[in-house]
Design a protein that fits this description.
By secondary structure, the chain is mainly α. 87% of the residues lie in helices and 0% in strands. It contains 2 helices and no strands.
Length: 63
């Protein structure tokens, strides 16, 4: 259940960062939105890899 939430949270966080921070404070146009979403996707991928590695490490120590 955790992996889908992490995968959904990254692009959502990227969009929200673009919408509320980049547009309001930096005045960036909508052309920058895909960059923020891609960065969110990359961050989600990194978090999922860390989560899977942590699960594998905990399984190997139990045996």
């Amino acid at each position: 259940m955790m992996v889908p939430l992490v995968l959904l949270g990254g692009p959502l966080a990227g969009y929200l960062l673009w919408r509320f921070i980049a547009v309001k404070f930096w005045g960036l146009s909508s052309g920058w939105m895909p960059l923020f979403i891609v960065l969110g996707i990359l961050a989600s991928g990194i978090q999922v890899a860390r989560l899977i590695k942590q699960i594998q490490d905990s399984d190997s120590t139990r045996k």
